[in-house]
Amino acid sequence: MSIASDLIRGHTDTIILARLMGGDNYGYEINKSIQQKTGGKYELKEATLYTAFRRLEQAGCISSYWGDEQTGARRRYYTITDLGRETYSGLVEEWQAAREMIEELMRTEET
Amino acid sequence: MSIASDLIRGHTDTIILARLMGGDNYGYEINKSIQQKTGGKYELKEATLYTAFRRLEQAGCISSYWGDEQTGARRRYYTITDLGRETYSGLVEEWQAAREMIEELMRTEET
DNA sequence: GAATATACATTGACAAATGAGGTATTGTGT
DNA sequence: ACACAATACCTCATTTGTCAATGTATATTC
Prior knowledge:
The structure is a homodimer of 111-residue chains. Helices cover 57% and strands 11% of the residues of chain A. Chain A is mainly alpha-helical and 111 residues long. Chain A has a three-stranded antiparallel β-sheet. Chain A is globular, with a radius of gyration of 16 Å. At the A-B interface, helix 1, helix 2 and helix 5 of A face helix 1 and helix 4 of B. The structure holds a DNA duplex (30 and 30 nucleotides).
C-alpha cells in the first residue's frame, strides 16, 4: 500500500459512511470491500477502523447490533442513521470544495 | 464558513512547496497568497505554517535566509531546493492517485 | 494439532495541526 | 503624543487521528 495515510486522514469517516449507505455491514467486511475497491492499494488498519466506529456511533451517525450468526466469529453490524446520511452528504460536499481548493493551491504559477 | 483542516492535512507541505516553485518568498506573503487564491476560504494558521517551514527545512526541501529590508519587519525568505522540487512532484503524483481512490471509495453502491 | 482466516477490541506512542501566548517594527487615526 | 492595526516572526502545550503491538475467540484446512 503506497498512499500516505495523511492524505486519507479526514476521509475515513466519509468512506465508512459511504459503505454503509448501501446497507448494514460489519467491520471486517467493510475493510475487505475497501481493499477490493482499491485493488489492494489501500486498507484501513484495524485500530483505525474500530476507532472510527466508536467515533461515529458516539456522534450518532451510526448504530450497531450483534449479528445472530449460528457459526463462525461474532459480527457487530452497523447501520447508518438519518444523521449519518446528512453527515455523509455534507462531507461529500466538503470534499468537492476541498478538492478544487487543493488543486488550485497545488498549481504552480505560470507566466 | 471554511474548509475543515483535516481535509487539508497532509497537503500543507505540498501547498507551500507549490508556492515556492514560483520563486523565493516569505511566510507572511505565502499565507496571504493562499488566502487570496482561495477567496478567503482558507488560510494556514501561523503555527501550522512555521511548523511546516521547520519540517521542510529539516528535510532539506527548502532553505532560508533573512531579507535585507531597510524598513519594516524583518522577513525570512525561503528557497525551494532540488530535493524540494522532486518532493513536490512526488507529492502531486500521490495526490492524483489519492484523489481517484477517495472518489471511488466515497461513491455509494448503485444497483 | 498446528496453522490460517475470520472477527472484534484495547493500549501506548507518534506526528500534524492548532490555540494561546510572545517579540518587534511601521503606519494611521485622533 | 497615544492607541491601534498591520506586518512579520517564533514557541510551547494540547488535541486528534493513525497505527503497531497485543489480546480474545471461533471455524476451517492440512
